[in-house]
Amino acid sequence: MSAITRDEVAHLARLSRLAISDDELDHYATQLDDIIAAVAKVAEVAAEDVPPSSHALPLTNVFRADEVRQSLTPELALSGAPAVEDDRFRVPRILGEEA
Amino acid sequence: MSVMAYDEALERYEPVLGLETHVELGTHSKMFCGCSTTFGAPPNTHVCPTCLALPGSLPVANEMAIESTIRIGLALNCSIAEWCRFARKNYFYPDMPKNYQISQYDEPLCFDGYLDVEVDGRTVRIEIERVHLEEDTGKSTHVGGATGRIQGADYSIVDYNRAGIPLVEIVTKPIPGTDRLAPEVARAYATELRELMRSLGVSDVRMEEGSMRCDVNVSLMPRGSSEWGTRTETKNVNSLRSVERSVRSEIQRQAAILAEGGRIIQETRHFHEDTGMTTSGRSKEEAQDYRYFPEPDLVPIAPDPVWVARLKSALPELPAVRRKRLQAEWGVSDHDMESMHNADAIEIVEATIAAGAPAADARKWWMGELARRANESGKALADLPITPAQVARVTELVASGTLNDKLAREALDGVLAGEGSPDEVVASRGLQIADEGELATIVEQVLAGNADAVEKVRSGKIAAVGALVGGVMKASRGKADAARARELILEKLGVSE
Question: Chain B contact for A19, CB < 8 A?
Fold first, then answer.
């Protein structure tokens, strides 16, 4: 497996809006590499008699009751947003001119 | 944009319809978290780490939403999946903070059903492909640019209160064979579906607030061909009337293109209430691959057959069955029942009858005078400022001889103008039918003043009595009982019919 580069970690961090220091870039690159290598082992043991699954646990029907719970305040909800306007999340132009 | 006359379009082409309807469920809390679903709250007050997709949060499915979806499926004669999963639909609009919407893909909760609708006295069976559960998206406002639309905007602002509200999508199979009734069939289907949702109590289905939204697919094939044409999908259709209009205008638009040898582009189109026409939206050919995959944060759903059977046996009387029962109880014709249904008047007429009005009177006032008022003010019948009980009281006042029809209309006027109950309006406006003594006096005066008409009636031209009755009504300022006045006139002139 190819190693995860510092640049890739920096890219992921930017997409995820996470502030990561230079030291942490190396740290996470190694960690992510290990995780991907570990997960890749699954492909080695996958056999035709093992059905694909979408969840780690053999459970069905995990539901919650239809009850209202406390939401965040708008101040708190918006506190992590890069830009805010009128109590709404402000996002860059969605479609280009040609759309 | 050129369009072809509807009749000509139908002579040359045969339409095929398809409808995708989204219904917001009326649960208290969202699909995967405990935030409230109440409409109209200040922006971003019904949001939490789960529906904002903050790191570490996990969704858990709302049992009531699952139950409501199964009930909808059962009411639409669908099979219910024994086992199914949610799926991630990945895309890059910011209306979902997760960058994906939790939906269902190849494993819908309900599938293969049908809904029968009545159009023009005939039953059309609409086959249902699937009913699946997903979450609604946030509401974007586009800032800058001339139109307030996403195209040309400088940036957008997003309110996530709606993000995560349970949303049911009901998809029909393609509907061929509706011919020139395609617009009416589309409307009848949306109407029937809305009533079905109401009777199940699963949604308030307010199209103007977006809790029910229709996407209308239309394609045309030349007469004699069996190969379906390219379809377009019209969005932004937010009233029953618009469903009908959008099908009609899209048939006319496509026919004009095809007749000139053109090609229909598979695309999303937007319906405009003001012009009744559609304009091009995003091209479906460029629509991105949503990279659906089974949702790893949620476990599969395997509805217990005992639960499903219990839900099925507890379904309420469905609207079509109820209408048949009411029609028999009220003794009205198919045509009158269909008119009431189309005017969305059945519930209100039923409530008026329950408040004591005879069926014929309840129907007469709501479908006549009150329908006219509603039409004039551009309101729905149910939004007129008068209650079924008040209408029932007016019919009672007519039956007891206190009011005639003309005075009853005045009483309704007063109630609609906010002057109080029918009895208060009758008292304050002095609406009271003339008593026998007053009536006799007025009849004498009118006979004395209309020698010509009197002579005609005496000489056998009974029809001339109409002018005399009219004179009595005028002299009494509408307060006479016309039928009784006619009797009195004939009696005094010694003429019998």
Answer: no
Q: Three-state DSSP class for B206?
A: coil
Q: Which domain holds residue B356?
A: 320-429
Nearest to B196 by CA among B333, B74, B332: B74
Please tell me the predicted confidence (pLDDT) of residue A99. Answer: 37
Closest CA to B105 of B76, B134, B81: B134
Q: Using a CB–CB cutoff of 8 Å, tell me whether A76 touches chain B.
A: no
- Chain A residue numbers with beta carbons less than 8 Å from the beta carbon of B66 are 63
Our count of domains for chain B comes to 3
B28, B143, B160 member nearest A68 (Cβ): B28
Q: Exposed/middle/buried for B156, CB within 10 Å: 0-12, 13-18, 19+?
A: buried
A interface test, pick of B82, B288, B299 with most A CB neighbours within 10 Å: B299
pTM of the model: 0.78
Rounded to whole angstroms, the Cα distance separating B175 from B182 reads 9
Residue listed under structure tokens 């995780």: A35
What does the pLDDT look like over B406-436, one tens digit per residue?
Answer: 889 999 999 999 999 999 998 888 887 777 7
Phi, psi of B218 (to 5 degrees): -135, 135
Is A50 inside any structural domain? no
- Whether A89 contacts chain B with CB within 8 A: yes
| CA B72 – CA B202 distance, rounded (Å) | 8
Q: Same structural domain for residues B108 and B211?
A: yes
B361 C-beta neighbours (distance < 10 Å), count: 20
Q: Token pair 């089974």 is at which residue?
A: B294
Residues of B in contact with A82 (CB under 8 A): none
Residue with tokens 């004498």: B444
Q: Do B213 and B87 reside in the same domain of the chain? A: yes
The CA–CA distances, whole Å, from B234 to B136, B247, B313 equal 19, 9, 37
Q: Which two tokens stand for residue B472?
A: 């009595």
ipTM entry: 0.76
